[in-house]
Amino acid sequence: MNAPNNRFKRYAILSAMFVLLIILGAHFLLSDAFLLRHVFSPPLVLPILNMLFLGIGFLIASYLAARSYLNIGSPGLLSFGSGALVFGLNGMISGWFMESPAGVNAVVTLYNLCSLLSGLFYLSGAAMILIDKPNEKRLIRRKGKLAVGYAGVVLVVGLLIAATRYGWFPVFYTPAQGFSVFRQVIISNAILLLLISGLILWLGQLKFKSDFVFWHALALILIAEGLLGIAIARSVGGILGWTGRLAQYLGGIYLIISVVRAVRERSLDEMLAELLKPGSLHTSVFENSFDGIVVAVCEGLILSANPQASRMLGYPEAELRRMSMDDLLKGGRPAVPHFLEKTGPKERYRGELVFTRKSGTCFPADVSCSAFEDSSGKELLAFVLRDISRQKEAEAAMRYNMERYELLSSTGHELLHASEPNGVLHALCIKAMDFLGCNTFFNYMIDPVQGRLHLNAYAGIAPEQALEIEWLDYGAAICGYVAEKGSAMIAEHIGDNQDARVVLAKRLEIRAYACNPLLNVDGTAIGTLSFGARTRDAFSAEDLSLMRTITNLLAMAIVRMRHEEELRRSRADLAKANEELERKVQSRTKELTNAVQALKTTNEKLNAYSDQLRSLAGEITMAEHRERKRLAIMLHDGLQQLLAAAKLQVGYLGDQEDDDGHRRSALEVEHLLGEAIQMSRDLTAELSPPILHRGDLQDGLKWLARWMLEKHRLEVNLEAENISVLNDTIKIMLFETVRELLFNVVKHSAVQRAQVDLRKTGSDKLQIMVRDEGVGFDPAILQSPETAGRGFGLFSIRERLDLIGARMSIESSPGKGSRFTIAAPLGLTQEAKMHSVGGDFPPRKAAGRVRLLVADDHAALRASLCQMLAGEQDIEIIGEAQNGAEAVRLAQALKPHIILMDLSMPQMDGIEATRIIHRSFPEICIIGMSMYEETEHMQTMQVAGAAGYVLKSTGKGDLLKAIRACIQE
Predict the structure, then answer these.
(1) Which residues contact 688 (CB under 8 A, 6 or more apart)?
(2) Burial class for 5, CB neighbours closer than 10 Å (0-12, 13-18, 19+)
(3) Dmax of the chain from CA atoms?
């Protein structure tokens, strides 16, 4: 119950500090213009809030102070009550003057004057407490002083209200000039008085540990902070003013909490005084209290005890009345003189004592003792007893757990850092033995050579006894049995145990014995650890658990040590193997160097041939289209014109001929010429449709749909968007691709209908989809070696599409038709231009050679790269780096144009080096290199600042292409 209360108090203290920081921050950080501009002052909010949070709480506090003064007679309480009454009346009344003729000035005047008066009362009460002014003994005088004091407070507040109402005080506030100097002096004094009073109360709560005093002190401090916010406010209703009011309202809340605490807390003097008075309430509290209450005279004789005390002590109340407090204490310790040394009249003392029950058992109790006088003036003592047996048991359990945790922690730490567990084993087991209350321990380790157990460490027996049990066979005694079975064995009450395995323990006078196996990672036993006790017959569950834990820690340490030893041997063997391998590598290095040089030359030639063949493939493809177009033009402009002229001539001759036979022959020739003309037209269309050169791609596809219907009875449903701006190369390639796909529909799909869709998919891309509902096929056969060359011409289609930067995807399955989707750019990419008709490689860097830095931690690969690139006329290798840190240093010193950066390097990897170089030198082009093909590595390098990414397994051509792409950028 105390932890949440203490946590709540800490939060309350932090809230007071937080409010002060807000007030000071707003004062020093916000400008005057901002503070004057943000004003919130509705007419009814201020009086209502003052009444709820300040008026009610302080009025209740004044009432409680009055009751306490009547019971105790402390003049400080009367002064505190007067201060609370002034502030309560102030909170209830001052805010309502806002609508009076005096307006804001009246509210400010009354509020500040009442705050000053309240501070005076509170400070005087604190001073009375400090000087320990004697209490008023007579009740009649206490009543008179209380009536006069509170009536005087009401009268003074009434006079202040009248003086404020009729303007008898200097002006505190004017809208034009703000707050007056007189007002600032008044409120400053009020702040100082309330703050000092709160601090004095705070110091008092440290002594008396009273929640009421704590919350009351915190409320006064918050009221002072709130007045500070109001004092430094630029205007009424501004941010600072409302922050100060909120601080005061929070103080009002804490004051209400203090009131609640006071009702719950109530002083022991007051409770005992009421307990001895007649009345059902006091009797009920005495009879039903959860704590035992014993009232005795100063000599120690017991006068009365409540039922809880009788149950706690085991004596009937009538029997307790014949006893003294000393009779109840363990050992007859004199209790009353002990308390009287600590306490004086009407003081309290709290401590712990051990009481003896009637049954003879003892229990610890938390005892509170208070001295007071009865109605006749006789001094009495009231003892409040609370049984703390369970608390003590919990504390003992906690201490045991803490000691157990410290033992396990130190054991694990020492075993973990020990290079040889045997070096610390004996000391750790001695420590564990002392904690467990045992008298012996034994550690046996299995000797795999002899197949027996050897005593490795022990304590609690003589050396000559240890020599007798130095070696044990499997199954012999308890330890041999545990090593053989691999499971723990607990032997208790050994004196009465007839098991043959406990004979050795009996001979050593051990009464309880617990043995646990030391297990390897595979569950096999490597030894045992056991503890024995000569002073008890059994172990507790906690003891057995601790033994198992210590055994497991020791086993892990021994296994770790053995693994480390194996690792050291493996490393030695590996070092020898590395030396042998190094010798072999050196013997082959020369041969490999020559082979690498030869492969480099061959690779360069192959890369050159590959580039030429790729370019030649583009030339051949477009040359075919040019030749088709040329033949179509020749057929149209030459042969078709001649045939048409011949037809006309033959027709003319036929008309002039009188002989019917000659006329029929002329007509036949004319018919044949017409068929020749039609065949020529069809051939022209097949070679190069004229509409394709005059119109757009969609016009060519419309013609193709009609032609497929006429020639092959294939109905083509075309849906095409208008795409007018399209490169001729792309248009021709896409047209031919669609035509070949439709030919495949005619030849393989076994249907007479197909669908062609043409649409734009972005600002620079288009998509063509050709689909049918025919027999379909398995796309996997296109990759199968057995079906190579029978891929429906799709391989050549893909090759042509690659030349223009386009891609084709295939979706098909047997019996479910086929769909071919082509994604193409509206314009040629840089790579496509290199392979298109008349396309050249992009020009290299015009001026100077490219300064290149190679960063790779593999010396052989780095040398191969430098040798391969050194033969290029436009590339100069200016440096090599074997790690990321060296690459950063050389980049700063050499200022290269391009860096080939390996991803994985020691000290600093290529990703971090790329990030640092790109941040400092963004003009340097960095190309990432790696053996990894995953796109995540490429994306990581790009995020770090790399301009390109190539695989180490790529050819020289692709590497040069990446380098020269950076040159162009």
Answers:
(1) 625, 628, 629, 631, 632
(2) exposed
(3) 173
**C-alpha of 258 from chain center:** 40
pLDDT band at 22; cut points 50, 70, 90: confident
- 881 neighbors 908 (Cβ within 8 angstroms): no
Please check whether residue 740 is in contact with residue 777, taking contact to mean a CB–CB distance below 8 angstroms: no
Using CB atoms within 10 A of its CB, is residue 746 exposed (0-12), middle (13-18) or buried (19+)? middle
Per-residue pLDDT of 391-408, as tens digits, reads: 888 877 787 778 777 777
Helices of type H across 447-526: 463-468, 477-485, 503-507
Amino acid identity at 268 = L
Give CA separation, 497 vs 442, 482, 545, 798, 911, in Å: 21, 18, 23, 90, 72
Per the confidence metrics, is the pTM higher than 0.70?
no
Average pLDDT over residues 268-281: 40
* Helix/strand/coil (H/E/C) assignment for every residue in 644-709: HHHHHHHHHHHHHCCCHHHHHHHHHHHHHHHHHHHHHHHHHHHHCCHHHHHCCHHHHHHHHHHHHH
Q: Which of 9, 160, 13, 184 is closest to 87 using CA atoms?
A: 160
**Per-residue pLDDT tens digits for 289-321:** 788 888 887 666 788 888 888 888 889 887 887
Instruction: Give me the pLDDT at residue 668, please.
Output: 77
Cα 179 to Cα 189: distance, rounded to the nearest angstrom: 15
User: How many CA atoms within 13 Å lie on the side-chain side of 408?
Assistant: 15
Angle in degrees, CA 401, 405, 407, rounded to 5: 115
Q: What is the pLDDT of residues 694-746, one digit of tens each?
A: 667 888 888 888 888 888 889 999 998 887 656 777 878 888 888 888 888 88
Please report, for residues 68, 342, 654, the alpha-carbon distance to residue 379 in angstroms, rounded to integers and kept in the order given. 21, 16, 161
Per the CB < 8 A criterion, the answer to whether 787 and 777 are in contact is: no
